[in-house]
Amino acid sequence: MYHTASSTGFKCDAVFDEIERNLEKDGAKYVSKVKSVFAFDILDGPGGKKGKWIVDVKNGNGSVEYGSKKKADCTITVKDGDLIDLALGKLQPQSAFFSGKLKIAGNMATAMKLQQILPKPKAKL
Q1: Distance in angstroms (rounded) separating the CA atoms of residues 119 and 112
Q2: Nearest-angstrom CA–CA distance, 95 and 115
Q3: Residues with Cβ < 8 Å from 76, sequence gap 6 or more?
């Protein structure tokens, strides 16, 4: 089900680990509200590598998968470091979107639901 993100070498592993912990704790609650599958295409990872995470908040109690081919309702494309800055509150989602640092493909209303599952800004991830 879940490929341990911590082994991918991406900075944003911590973000997906936190999302997974939230789903393990309150997955049914999130699934009943969000009802969507998100794909995260992460750019500029270690050595310029690209990675793909699927955050399923539509089925069961939700899940986080690395490298999944599951179809998403919404795809977010962002650089590895920028996702960390978003999670830490150093980068605001709206400014990231309008500056081109965050790209969204698919249902925009679905993208707005993303705030419900992303970790709240913290000092450290």
Answers
A1: 14
A2: 15
A3: 38, 39, 40, 41, 102, 103, 104, 111, 114
Looking at every residue in the chain, the average pLDDT score rounds to 89
- Asked if pLDDT for residue 117 goes beyond 90, the answer is no
Tell me how crowded residue 104 is: count the other CB atoms within 10 A of its CB. 18
Residue ranges with strand state E in the chain: 36-43, 51-57, 63-66, 74-79, 102-106
Q: Note the pLDDT tens digit of each residue in 47-68.
A: 999 999 999 999 999 999 999 9
What is the CA angle 47-101-91, rounded to 5?
Answer: 100
Q: Where are the alpha helices (DSSP H) in 35-88?
A: 80-88
Predicted confidence at residue 119, as pLDDT, reads: 75
DSSP state of 45: -
Find out whether 69 and 31 touch, Cβ atoms under 8 Å: no
